[in-house]
Amino acid sequence: MKNFALIFALLFATNANAEATYESSILELKKGFVGDALGIEVEEISIENDQTVIELGLPDLSGEPHNLRLLDSNGEPVAVKKGYEVIKGHDNTPKGVILYLDKQHKRAFRIIYEINETN
After folding, report:
1. Measuring CA to CA, how many Å separate 71 from each of 7, 53, 68, 90, 107?
2. Averaging pLDDT over each range in 8-22, 28-42, 46-60, 78-92, which range is the top one?
3. What is the spatial distance between Cα 98 and Cα 30, in angstroms, rounded to a whole number?
4. DSSP letters spanning 20-60
5. How far is residue 52's CA from residue 54's CA, in Å, rounded to a whole number?
6. How far apart, in whole angstroms, are the C-alpha atoms of residue 110 and residue 108?
7. Residue in 116, 58, 118, 104 with CA at minimum distance from that of residue 84
8. What is the pTM of this model?
9. Confidence bin at 42 (pLDDT 50/70/90)
10. Which terminal residue of the chain has fewer beta carbons within 10 Å of its beta carbon, N or C?
11. Cα separation, 116 vs 118, whole angstroms
């Protein structure tokens, strides 16, 4: 009986902090564009210090995004120049990300990220 209780406790602890992977549809580089999958919005696009800066609104995040990667429409990786920053709202919850890409980047892309979700 003790073994059953231990296994049950381990299963519950594992599910309490499950990691989920999210993948968007193709996002066009147009301010205001909203992707079909997940409802990610392209909120801002600017050129700063030889890089393209893209601000994305990510809907209803239950945790902070990590392991973020970008793929072009052919499934090839898109180089992120300086990483990314998580945007947090007034309540300190994640609301989106800022991406830093090469200045020459003009192609649509898909974003994939993981979130440690707590139940």
Report:
1. 39, 16, 10, 31, 10
2. 28-42
3. 15
4. EEEE---B-SSTT-B-SSTT-EEEEEEEETTEEEEEEE--S
5. 6
6. 7
7. 58
8. 0.79
9. very high
10. N
11. 7
